[in-house]
Amino acid sequence: MSDAPNPERLLFASTTQSFLEKGASLGRLRELHEAGTSFEMDWWQRAAELGWTSLLVPEELGGGNVSGDGVADLALVAELAGHTVAPGPLHPVSVVLAGLAEVPENHEPTIESLISGEIVASWAVYEPGKQWSPLNAAVTATRTDTGYRIDGVKDRVEAAADSAVLLVVAQCDGAVRQFLVPTDAAGVTVESQRSIDMVKTYARVQFDGVEVDASAVVGSAEQTPALIERQSQIAVILQCAEIVGILDTVLDFTIQWGFDRHSFGRPIGSYQALKHKYADLKIWFESCRATTNAAVAEVAARSAGAEMAVSVAKSYVGEHAPGMLQDCIQLHGGIGVTWEHDLHIFLRRATLYRSLFGTPEDHNLRVYALTKNLENA
Amino acid sequence: MTDTASAPTETTESVEEFATRARSWLAENMPSIDPANPPEHDRGEEEPWQRAKELQKKLYEGGFAGICFPREYGGLGLPIAYQKAFNNESRCYEIPVILNTPTFTICAATILDTGSEEQKQQHISAALRGDEVLVQLLSEPSGGSDLAGVITRADRKGDKWVINGAKTWSTSAFAADYGLMLARTDWDVPKHEGLTMFLVPINSEGITLRRIKQVNGSVEFCEEFFDNLELGDDAVVGEVNGGWHVASRQLYHERRAVGGGSEFASGIGAEGKSDVPIDYVALLEATGQAESERAQEAAGRALVHRAVREQLIDHVYHGVLDGSLPPAAGSIIRVTHAEVHHLEFDTVLSLTGSTGVVDAGDDMIRFGERYLSRQAAALGGGTTEIARNIIGERVLGFPREHAADRGVPFNQVKRNKG
User: Fold this and answer.
1) B273 lies within 8 A of chain A by CB
2) Which fold has domain B277-395?
3) What ipTM was reported for this prediction?
4) CB-nearest partner of A275 from B301, B318, B389
5) Which pTM was predicted?
6) In the 3-class helix/strand/coil scheme, how is B155-202 assigned residue by residue?
7) What's the confidence (pLDDT) of residue B8?
8) Is the CATH number of domain B15-132 3.40.50.2000?
């Protein structure tokens, strides 16, 4: 992801890649789908042992990165995962760790269990009937003698059924706050929601007077908006990086198809109408990679431009990727719309990401607002 | 051949130190401007060219000209990071940006790749000193995309070359001192093998120059007619009948320059008001749509595409440098340049609505007028169709388009009717 390939990162990339090829192939994904399983915990623990869960966490909290740049290392994992549309809770666990690592007080045991892969966690941020607006929560946290009582409903919570804890965004005394809520606490009801992905599951989570200790709160009221922004940025760059991996693989085999498939005695890639379509795919792919790399670098550096770079990347990648995959289906012909061909597996994941954590249209509005702020500054 | 895509020599001065030195030199020596409202440099007028040459001379004397050109030809021999740092520092100063393309980014870059030692010594340093403006004399009235099919002829008479024919779409040739001119020197061989590149003094006997008026009223482009123009052997760039190689380098540099990916460009400011990036926030205010979410979203999308174009330029530049992308990937930038330009002008036509087409006193009609020239960005510097062919064939490796003139002696190739 950076200009100079770092030897540690190259080694990490090759280990990660062979791990994914062995245990997270497209064939394996179809088996999980058939079995109605999202992912297997022991597989996730082995992924954690490879270091996937430690990258955003500083060493003093038991984490550690590969190349000195944990955000870029994590984006690399996501890109490689995209090559095979890997299962697993990489996104929700990483987003929760991104928040906890900033304000670890009282949460060290949770961080440790997440790093070891012993438990999974997820960010409960969406609410029923509402589009992406992470700071706007109707779920409430009311102070009690010993802590807080959580009431309300979240939905579109990834891997909630497999999570031991949820990081819940709630209103508390007029401010937005986040709480770590165990899913086995009394009053928590998890109801599965179907997604268009082959294996990724989501859930509606109801909180009925759920009591948590005072130590369940994550960060102060002042810190919370910045924490939510950081978590959102990590969520979006993971989406973009994984989509780049998806596009890389699909373009590769679609271009090869252009050489191998013959019509009227010629490879189909020799027809100018298709050649130009392929050229556009290449242009958009390099643009997706360029803007994703730029966003990853800005987030890693925690630069002032990170918010803008992340929205630019999500808007561009989200606008182009699903259409590019549809073009690849068109280039394949009828085989492209069959269940047997893998194309739909890639399309499902990319389309899912297009619309979660802000649509391209949401991020366009954000880019406009940030531009306006810059001009008025 | 010098490989202009390789990283140049080293220096003991860090990029930051260089930027600091540039900052104070610029403040003391160059006229300051408001980058949002730069002075108009109409390429169709004479005056901006005189002004540009004077400013270039100051840059040269101050030691900030030709940052990525080799030292032996008057440059500084530094990596692109130094040029970028200089560009960044120079935003609020008047920089002779009209000299960038084609003089520095295409012509001087090609002479550096393919010229004789004398040509490099003479023309690159003259251009960097502000003494010479260089142009390209490539396209002909008979065709643009099929460049190797040119029919301007150079015939050998004694120890001279005699040139007859016509060239067109040469940018600002009226203001130029020399032009790189592609002519046919052998008609009995296939089209690529009988071409020679000449470096032509524009103010010569035997050249008649005419301005072309465009849709937007600009008269920057010219057409040239050659009637028995005489040139010596010292005017040949590269080998006799090796002109296609030279032209290929020009096209390579042109594709990079058109998208904004050349390390030889100095300064990044606009050439005038019509070249200033659209200020969507001001546009929405002016058209009473500041609170319209629909308008904000459309403007945001255009801003996203504009930002990604800049990220792409950087990505492709480094990709070509480290070998992860082939040199032909410059065409990726070329197409994106046109696509983003289209999107911006389509967006602005939509946002300005009726006052974009009828002058209601808010000056929005300028955007309607600019829309009329939208396709210029997809035609100038090689069409986007040719660029997509290049990406399909030379980046992705698909079979070449069928060419009826391949391997056929040029005098047997079918040409335009009438």
Assistant:
1) no
2) Butyryl-CoA Dehydrogenase, subunit A; domain 3 (1.20.140)
3) 0.94
4) B389
5) 0.90
6) EEECCEEEEEEEEEEEECHHHCCEEEEEEECCCCCEHHHHEEEEEEEC
7) 47
8) no
